[in-house]
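Page 47, continued from p. 46.
Same chain as before, 331 aa.
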Amino acid sequence: MAANLTPEYLEAEKEFKSASSTEQKVEALERMLATIPRHKGTEKLQADLKRRLSKLHAGQAERARQEKRSVSRPGLPHHVEKEGAGQVVLVGPPNSGKSQLLCSLTHATPEVADYPFTTRLPLPGMMAFEDVQIQLVDLPPVHPDLPESWLYHIVRNADAALLVVDLSDPDLLEDLETTLTEAQKFKVNLGAGPASGLGWVSLKTLWVGNKMDASGAAEDFEILKELYGSGCTILPVSAQTGAGLPELRRSVFDLLELVRVYTKVPGKKPELQAPYVLKRGARLIDLAAQVHHDFVTQLKFGRVWGHGKFEGQMVNRDDVLADKDVVELHR
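Result:
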């Protein structure tokens, strides 16, 4: 039976495909459900719309829970449980715009003010990059006037860091050196300083030049690159206007050295909504362990659709997977 979809449905479907946020997708799906003709020919389509809408609602609820969560452990005044594909801490001098950056990249609602030391407690938020969620954690400034030892415990246990500096700050270089020195007191290397040694943590770090929209910021960014760019990756952004934030999302994903892998059942279409997220260099057997523990011993081979491979190429258990590979597991 023909679906005979209405113009209102087709317009809502178009809006869904072009939606850039979860809220927009939910609104479009709800309109699609409200305008779809109700007859036997659309029953499967109705069920699919309801399934996708339910999945988006569940994701919204989970993100809301994650953004409010800051769990304490015995012996630690503050601790943030890791969530998503990786945990990235925001560190930097006072008033560098870390809270505004968190606000612009996630659904978290930190207090944002133009005076220093506004942030006194860790605040997590979930940043979307395409089809994965990465946890960002806003922290109090790294500064000798706020010597919080718990702060460095969170930093040392994170997967990576964003070192955020204010490009409009007349004391930019002095404040940056203060931040680096304070971190080094706790044996934390943020991309400049001792690379290794007993008790040292060398954290994967992306330097973020914030407030690129400010007067004179472009010149200060060039100075920053000239002085530190040979050993660090420095990205210019404006948390206020949104300039550079799409590039920042991609750079954070790359910083974590992750790959996304999609699975499919033989004879069926791949599931492209919720990838398995693994570390770069992961093998087919590592994916199998995530899918189900039985696959570890029973896996015979896989078929892979992806970069550098012909369609459905047969691979063995030790084949290294690439980002956005589609995999069939056979046992």
